[in-house]
């Protein structure tokens, strides 16, 4: 009877551990958004696993160069020396990383993690590494046929995911599954919202669109907004009830049909008699940025019409990966339909200014309606555009020489200008240059990971990390292959957990930008300050009008 083979130990590979600790230590450095000990542990744990895999691969590639294997005594001595080497590296990385997090928290005006909280990163990172290694080795330990079955299933899942992300028209299996999974979240309301009674709101008794068809985001949108008193106080003139039109997926799954319904609803409410019609592209789940809409309505005293529609049931993070065609279709078809309706108005009838807006994923979809900034006819405001935005990327890539990616100047600022954070009020070039209408504004914070995240971070240093850092990014932030990609990926999760003016949190800044794009006649900086005071005072009721 042949002897049983020795049981495989679950110890880590020394070169793998060395590479893993090196990457994990580098990941302790701050990037764009302050991290807690737990989130740092997630970052470091994945880097530990990635480094370990890299070390194992390198060891196997170099195995033929090793003529004889070391003895048990040599291996034991090697582990002791490795521990003596890596221990101080871990301590120094934690100490340096903690100091960086404290500096970054002070820069962004948030509470810094305590030392005890920061040390939580160590057990979390070890747990993440253990789980990932256990999964891989558990699969390897299976008998041949079960192991092949698991690997086959993983292969099928990866292929389906790649096909879904590829954006092949009509072929998106992951989206089909996820739409069903998130369908339940489209029900209900926020804050006890009730159907509006005003005929100027979708979902009202007079509306062409039922309350139930609007979806959760739409119901929130049409049942909220500034009070008449706030509109009058902010604008300095008698308030007019704003028009809010929304078309949900409950009305139609086809973007063209939703645009047709939206135009019919705009006509019903008399929206084309208003001086401004704003076409908004929503986030993945159909939500509208409340602060941006409120800002426009406050400045104009409510004499506006805002139209938006829903195109997805998935959260924005998933929608960004899987909904490229639906995002673009939503932004393009709605704008084109509204633009065509305004252009078809009888000769001599005053035409409203048709401006566009989108934040985050909404900015991506809204920009899809324009092949170039020259096609923006009445004005545009886009907040926190994802890095994959084609129009944004072309503008930033063609910026004037000597200007930074985080604050580019394009064509001396004649058509489009970039602001955000401390640079939002009064967008000017240096030296000042004319800025005729129509105007386009991008708001982008140097610390917004949604703007700067791209798969290219894996292997390529971006300009924003090669040039002087932005106002709310530490000058010590550096690019490290693989590590920076994962850090910025995790930064996106907490991008809105920072004050206005930082991260992916734009809020009241939209008011300043709107007043650059489409100000009321005779509007002055003093008027903007007054509107800001009203908006920032809060207490803007949701009248359910």
Write the layout of secondary structure elements.
Blueprint: H1 14-26, H2 37-62, H3 72-108, H4 115-119, H5 121-141, H6 144-166, H7 173-182, H8 215-222, H9 228-235, E1 243-247, H10 255-269, E2 276-281, H11 290-299, E3 304-309, H12 316-322, H13 324-343, E4 353-359, H14 361-367, E5 380-383, H15 390-397, E6 416-419, E7 440-443, H16 449-452, H17 483-493, H18 509-517, H19 525-536
Parallel strand pairs: 1-3, 2-3, 2-4, 4-5, 5-7, 6-7
Describe this structure in words.
This protein has 545 residues and is α/β, with parallel strands linked by helices. It contains 19 helices and seven strands. The chain has helices at 14-26, 37-62, 72-108, 115-119, 121-141, 144-166, 173-182, 215-222, 228-235, 255-269, 290-299, 316-322, 324-343, 361-367, 390-397, 449-452, 483-493, 509-517, 525-536, and strands at 243-247, 276-281, 304-309, 353-359, 380-383, 416-419, 440-443. Strands 1-3-2-4-5-7-6 form a seven-stranded parallel sheet, with helices on both faces. Strand 2 (276-281), helix 11 and strand 3 (304-309) form a beta-alpha-beta unit. Residues 1-9 and 539-545 have low confidence and may be disordered.
